[in-house]
Design a protein that fits this description.
two-stranded antiparallel sheet, 7 strands, 56% helix, 17% strand, binds adenosine-5'-diphosphate
Length: 270
């Protein structure tokens, strides 16, 4: 038991050490709680597609004399299997992000490139739903970080904007510098999020409308991943939303200042 170990080790140490050990202990317990919750949630979430696939496989066996039904069930098995694959991948991504608090070797990343790459990833889904995605980034903005993770974060926000909006509406993604932060904002004209739910949507597996999330192939992990990616980059993500009008998710990351930017700042021109 950790608390016993702590008491034994505390005796010969000073007050500062006792405090440190106590903090360590609380932290360790919290990490353990988070881990246990995560495992419980994960097994619950995995059971849904796995159960679905088993039932569908049985249906295929029962329907073997009806080729049309077999095709229909097989197609659904394929959809469920894809979803399961994505869920497993996101669980792995999220656990990696939760273990590492910060990035090891950040690169200088062009924000413009992040936005365009993220747009490419949701292009097919947006076209399928007839949603026009507009990209507008201020030139020359850079942050220190991991290109792949940043693209994942923005693509997750864009995928949600597309999934929770109606056909014919517009989605925008833009980036600008505000003080010493880069703000990347994803805006939609979709269904919006009730005020009481706006904080909870960043929790793992939390969904406002589980049926809608599942129908769009959602895993319930997208925003938790965005939140961890922002934290690992020394930033944060916030939401503004009004039901029936739409939502704006804003990632705020420290701007990367390099020599050229310093020179520009010294220039009296705006
Ligand atoms: P999911 O896979 O369910 O989309 P997320 O973590 O990405 O998981 O989002 C959690 C929930 O937050 C969603 O199920 C949805 O209810 C809500 N949500 C996220 N983005 C939006 C948005 N742009 N508009 C409306 N609701 C949203």
């Amino acid at each position: 038991d950790a608390s016993v170990v702590m008491r034994v080790r505390v005796a010969p140490l000073g007050a500062a050490h006792v405090l440190l050990l106590a903090e360590d202990h609380t932290h360790a317990r919290r990490v353990e709680e988070v881990r246990r919750d995560f495992v419980a949630n994960v097994s619950h979430e995995l059971k849904t597609p796995v159960g679905g696939i088993s039932l569908l496989a049985e249906a295929v066996l029962d329907a073997k004399d009806d080729p049309e039904a077999v095709t229909r069930f097989a197609r659904r098995i394929s959809i469920e299997a894809t979803r399961l694959g994505r869920l497993v991948q996101e669980i792995v991504d999220l656990s990696r992000l939760q273990v590492a608090d910060t990035l090891h070797e950040p690169d200088l990343v062009e924000v413009d490139a992040v936005l365009h790459e993220a747009h490419d990833r949701v292009r097919v889904a947006a076209d399928a739903r007839q949603i026009d995605v507009q990209v507008a980034a201020q030139r020359g903005l850079r942050v220190f970080g991991d290109l792949e993770l940043l693209v994942t974060a923005v693509a997750n926000l864009l995928a949600n904007a597309v999934n929770y909006s109606e056909a014919g509406t517009r989605v925008g993604v833009g980036a600008r510098q505000v003080g010493d932060a880069v703000e990347i904002a994803v805006t939609d004209q979709g269904q919006g999020i009730p005020v009481g739910e706006q904080e909870r949507i960043f929790e793992r597996f939390y969904r406002v409308d589980a049926a809608r999330s599942r129908a769009t192939g959602g895993t319930g992990l997208g925003l938790a991943i965005v939140k961890h990616i922002c934290a690992n980059h020394g930033g944060e993500v916030t939401v503004w939303s009004e039901e029936g009008r739409g939502s704006t998710f804003t990632m705020r990351l420290p701007v990367a200042v390099d020599q050229t930017a310093d020179d520009l700042a010294a220039d009296p021109e705006p």
